[in-house]
Structures are given as structure tokens and as C-alpha cells.
């Protein structure tokens, strides 16, 4: 064989091996990054569980106070709040009708002047007196509303005072039981349960990330390719390159479908696959309950039927 040709072939082999080595190194780096990210999630979730498990400080009354007396005190406190809200509403209504009084009185005075100055033969005579009586009724009705609001305001004021006296009597009674205020730690069980679930999910994601390295070993589809799998035997330095088996092709249906560098689906390095693009599928992989396709370029894409469609 021609020496020049042999030299060219050897150089090509060395170049191809270098590309494969670089791509394998990058794949390992990506896998390591995914595992580290998943480990960080586990650590953060564990710290959250530990913090919530310790609880937070809360002040409460403890001692010999009977449960029914505690409930009576709580009910009395709630009753005062409700009555105070009713009193505030009554005062607001009273102020409204008081403000209306001057406005309505001026309207009545104006209508009274018109009625006293109009002739019996005037075509608008009937309308003027109708307006006068309407204004007079509005003033009378407003006065009645003022009286009613004043009554409710006074009533609610007395009820608030009675409720406050009742609460004070109950609190004085509670003191005789030797109750005391102490600071305790309370655990929010709902938040803790949510944090534990978050920790379990993070642990599973870490497990998937560690196991994911085996899923990305894929033979080349032809020529020098990042899917090239290197097998080394002790007795030889030869590298075996296998062609990937294409399972089928898919057609991108949706307008926004991304392919990702790893199954962790990090945004960094993701690629928008245009609608109508046809892609070969070499492997089906899973993450949790979801399926993804391994496509050319050692990338993953969703297997959702709304986004992609099998065409071959």
C-alpha cells in the first residue's frame, strides 16, 4: 500500500479516537454535573426536614386550668371581636345617615321654595309638589335611619362592655387554678410531611441520576460519532465501533418542543426542535413515570403524543 495513503489513514484513525475520547469525557462531565445537582437537592431537602422536625417556639398556657374553662375563655374572646365588628359597622351607618341629613334638608328647602312660589295654574304645579313630598319623605326616612342606627350603636356598645366583663371574670377564675404561661416547641406536621415528600423525591432523582450513566452508552450511527462505544481488551488496542439500531422515526408536532443534553432536563444546552422536523429514535428511556426518546446527538426528547408522533 502507498505510504502516503497509509499515513493519511493512520492520522484519520487518531483524529477519530480523539473526538470519541473528548465526547466521552464530556458525557462523563455531564453525568457528574447531573449527579451533583441531584445531591444538592437531597442535601437541601434533608436540611429542611431537620429544621421543621425541631419545631418552632410558641407561647401557651399550661397548668391546672380545665379544658372547658379554656374553651369558655376562647369563646368569650371571639364574642368580643364579633361585637366590636358589629359596633364599628353600626357607627359607620350612623355617620352615613348623619352626613346625609344636611344634604337632604337642603334639597327639601329648595323644593319647599319652589312649591310656595308656584301658581295653581302653572303646568308644572303638580310635578313641583310631587318633588317636594319626595324630598320631605327622604328627610323623614333618613331621620328614622339615624334613630335606628343610634339605637344599635348604643346596644352594641353595652354588649361589648358586658362581653369584656364576662371575659375578665373567666380570666380571674383561670388564675385560681394556678395556670401559667410557658414557651414550648411545636411542630407543623403538614409542612413537615410536605418536606419529607420533597426529600423522598430528591433521593429518587439522585438514584436515577446515578443510574442514568448506563443509559447513555450508545453505538455510533456511522463515521466518527459521540455515540461511539469504546471496548478495550488487554491483548489488543483495537476499538470496536457498532452502529446504533434505529427503532423508528418521530415527527415534531408542537411548535415548542425541546431536546436536552441529559435526562435531568436542564435548561442549559437545550435545543428547540422545529415543528415538522423528523428525528430518528435509538432508545426509549424513562424518568419517573414519563417516557423520553434518545435521538441523534445523544439528546433526549419527550415522548408525549401531543408533542411528537411516530411515523416509522
Indicate the percent of residues in helices.
55-70%
Q: Total number of helical segments?
A: 4
Structural class: alpha+beta
User: Tell me, what is the CATH class of the largest domain?
Assistant: Mainly Alpha
End-to-end Cα distance, whole Å, is 44 Å
Mean pLDDT equals: 83
**How many discrete structural domains?**
3
Q: What is the fold named in CATH at topology level of the largest domain?
A: Helix Hairpins
CATH architecture of the largest domain: Orthogonal Bundle
Question: How many strand units?
Answer: 9
- Sheet bearing the most strands, described? 7 strands, antiparallel
Please state how the strands of the largest beta sheet are arranged side by side: 5-4-8-7-6-3-9
Give start-end ranges of low-pLDDT stretches.
1-15, 218-232
Radius of gyration: 42 Å
How does the overall form come out from the CA principal axes? flat
* H/E topology pattern: HEHHEHEEEEEEE
Strand percentage lies at: 15-25%
Fourth-level CATH superfamily of the largest domain: Helix Hairpins
Q: Could you characterize the architecture of this molecule?
A:
The chain is of the alpha+beta class and 312 residues long. It folds into three domains: 21-57 and 186-214; 67-177, Helix Hairpins (Orthogonal Bundle); 248-311. Helices cover 57% and strands 16% of the residues. The chain has helices spanning 3-54, 67-117, 125-175, 189-211; strands at 56-62, 180-186, 248-252, 257-260, 271-273, 278-287, 290-295, 299-302, 308-310. Strands 5-4-8-7-6-3-9 form a seven-stranded antiparallel beta sheet, with no helix packed on it. Helix 1 runs antiparallel to helix 4 (189-211) and helix 2 (67-117) packs antiparallel against helix 3. Mean pLDDT is 83; it is low at 1-15 and 218-232. Residues 21-93, 160-212 form a coiled coil. This is Surface layer protein A domain-containing protein.
Amino acid at each position: 500500500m502507498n505510504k502516503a495513503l497509509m499515513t493519511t489513514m493512520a492520522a484519520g484513525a487518531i483524529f477519530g479516537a480523539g473526538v470519541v475520547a473528548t465526547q466521552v469525557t464530556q458525557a462523563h462531565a455531564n453525568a457528574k454535573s447531573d449527579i451533583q445537582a441531584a445531591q444538592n437537592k437531597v442535601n437541601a431537602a434533608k436540611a429542611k426536614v431537620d429544621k421543621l422536625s425541631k419545631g418552632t417556639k410558641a407561647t401557651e398556657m399550661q397548668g391546672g386550668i380545665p379544658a372547658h374553662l379554656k374553651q369558655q375563655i376562647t369563646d368569650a374572646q371571639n364574642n368580643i371581636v364579633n361585637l366590636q365588628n358589629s359596633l364599628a359597622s353600626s357607627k359607620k351607618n350612623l355617620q352615613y345617615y348623619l352626613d346625609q341629613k344636611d344634604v337632604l334638608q337642603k334639597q327639601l328647602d329648595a323644593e319647599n321654595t319652589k312649591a310656595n312660589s308656584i301658581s295653581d295654574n302653572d303646568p308644572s304645579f303638580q310635578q313641583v309638589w310631587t318633588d317636594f313630598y319626595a324630598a320631605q319623605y327622604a328627610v323623614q326616612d333618613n331621620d328614622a335611619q339615624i334613630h335606628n342606627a343610634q339605637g344599635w350603636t348604643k346596644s352594641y356598645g353595652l354588649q361589648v362592655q358586658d362581653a369584656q366583663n364576662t371575659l375578665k371574670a373567666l380570666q380571674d377564675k383561670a388564675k385560681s387554678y394556678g395556670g401559667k404561661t410557658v414557651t414550648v416547641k411545636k411542630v407543623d406536621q403538614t409542612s413537615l410531611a410536605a418536606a419529607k415528600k420533597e426529600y423522598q423525591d430528591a433521593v429518587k432523582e439522585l438514584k436515577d441520576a446515578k443510574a442514568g450513566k448506563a443509559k447513555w452508552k450508545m453505538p455510533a450511527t456511522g463515521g466518527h460519532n459521540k455515540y461511539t462505544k469504546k471496548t478495550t481488551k488487554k491483548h489488543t488496542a483495537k476499538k470496536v465501533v457498532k452502529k446504533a439500531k434505529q427503532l423508528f422515526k418521530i415527527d415534531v408536532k408542537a411548535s415548542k418542543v425541546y431536546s436536552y443534553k441529559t435526562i435531568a432536563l436542564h435548561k442549559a444546552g437545550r435545543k428547540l426542535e422545529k415543528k415538522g422536523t423528523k428525528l430518528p429514535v435509538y432508545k426509549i428511556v424513562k424518568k419517573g413515570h414519563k417516557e423520553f426518546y434518545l435521538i441523534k446527538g445523544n439528546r433526549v426528547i419527550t415522548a408525549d403524543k401531543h408533542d411528537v408522533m411516530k411515523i416509522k
